[in-house]
Amino acid sequence: MNKKVMAIAVAGAFAVPGVALAQKSTVEIYGRANLGVDYYEAQGAVNPYNNREGRTRVFDNSSRVGFRGTEDLGGGLRAIFQLETGVNIDNGSNTGQGGQANASSGFWATRDSFVGLDSNFGRVTFGRQSVYWANGVNAQFAANYINTEIPWTNGTAMGRISAQGATPARVSNMLQYTTPTFAGINGTLSYSPNAQEAVQGEGTGTTNCQAGAPAGVSCKSDGYLWGATARGEWGPFYAQVDYADVNGNTPIGPAGTPPRGDGNAWKVGGSWGYMPGARIGLIWVKSTNNNAFSLTAATQNGFIPGNSVNQQGWTLNWEHTFGNFQVMAQYGQLGNIKGCDSQPATGAWIDCGDTKAIGYMVGGRYFLSKRTWLFASWNLVDNKSNQFADYNGGAITSTNATAGNTPFGADPQIWALGIFHNF
After folding, report:
1. Rounded to an integer, what distance in angstroms lies between the CA atom of residue 123 and that of residue 284?
2. Options 2.40.160.10, 3.40.190.10, 2.60.40.3880, 2.60.130.10; which CATH number does 29-59+144-167+183-422 get?
3. 204: helix, coil or strand?
4. Of 89, 175, 209, 269, whose CB has the highest number of CB atoms within 10 Å?
């Protein structure tokens, strides 16, 4: 009997450290599943052959699985990490609804993933991280609430304006520093040598250079992206300002090689939470391309090499909660592109007119619990004849356009029913 008691005591002694370690562990497994059935179409294109006929889809938008945790290093210093991966529960692959590649799913660490240090002096992290596009509480609809929102609300889907080198959204090889909060205000500085893998002599065409580069063109490894975000919260009021500066690698090639991609983007937003679960806000965005270039009339890019073109837009957001039901709506406008309203001497096709768009979103969600809800939504973008602003977040569009078949003038529309579960 005594031997049995001793054996139990010894086993317990060896087990205690393991239990203690388990209790100190801060690793958390988390994620979300956002799936449903919807109907997508994009009709009314200037070229009717480029219309996208209506199709019913089982969709997934931004489902993910993640691991995150902290370790107390003493003296107010903590080690932190996050490893988040997008998963397409609808098809088990890394493609979107139109068969296009979705850079935020299908592989480890496709979403925000980093390691760093956190202290009373701020937080420093390294990894694949978001810069510029998130709106805080100003606009949470997108894939956080339902299926999607007006495309230009986050400032990265302006239709025909891009930095031609990198996108200020979720960026690889990113260093970030976030300040402590003072008087309700904090900020984040971001820097990435974004195109560092493409070096002189490596890659041709669009592989490591940029869209429109002819075969045989290589690139230097001098591309970069930096950004800054300032946030403030004062009771029911929230405001946020974002800026991003993007420079692609410099192409090296024969005459006619497109110039280095060079662009920047601004986003300013504010909102008022006038009661729990209810908020109204406004977001303004501006995207500038300082080295816009023209390809051919067939592709309808319509820019002169070296032009500085820009486009502005805004979105009004509203949400209101009645018991277990929340309604939401958006209305927004995208203005004409500015900076290329004249015919160039070379005779290349160019036209900044009729590049406006108007966006609408109406939706609602019914809470089954704090972590699970059902939702329904209707989204529409009314594009003018030289514009095609589409729903690109989470690769939810069914339009997999290539040069020459973009449905300019078409109006993408989505009706959706879905279920959202956080875990």
Report:
1. 28
2. 2.40.160.10
3. coil
4. 209
Q: Which residues, in sequence order, are CB contacts of 1 under 8 Å at separation 6+? A: none
For the stretch 132-157, pLDDT in tens is 989 999 998 888 899 999 999 998 87
Dihedrals phi, psi of 63, to nearest 5 degrees: -65, 150
Summarised one tens digit per residue, pLDDT across range 243-281 is: 999 887 777 776 666 677 788 999 999 999 999 999 999
Positions of E strands within 44-92: 52-60, 64-74, 77-86
In our burial notation (b when 16+ CB lie closer than 10 A, e otherwise), range 320-359 reads bbeeeebebbbebbbebbebbeeeeeeebbbbbeebbbbb
148 near 97, Cβ under 8 Å? Answer: no
Structure tokens at 58: 């089982």
**How far is the C-alpha of 20 from the C-alpha of 10, rounded, in Å?**
16
Q: How far is CA 390 from CA 45, 87, 151, 273, 316, in A?
A: 13, 22, 6, 29, 18
Geometric angle at alpha carbon 174, from 168 and 179, rounded to 5°: 95
